[in-house]
Amino acid sequence: MPHVSGEGGVVPHIWWYEFRNALLMNERRGRISSQQVAKTLAASSALKIEIDESHDELQILGFCRGLI
What we know:
mainly alpha, globular
């Protein structure tokens, strides 16, 4: 199984927003500190993450349904 830290990954455009939202929600709830948010964002910038701007509706629905 590939690992993002070594091989990178492809994510939908919304990932950028959702990732930051998850970090901020956890900070607000006291689960992580603002320093941990900053460290996580810095670490994530080193990952080989490609943002996919195209959308294949059938493939997305298949992923959601567990068919792919």
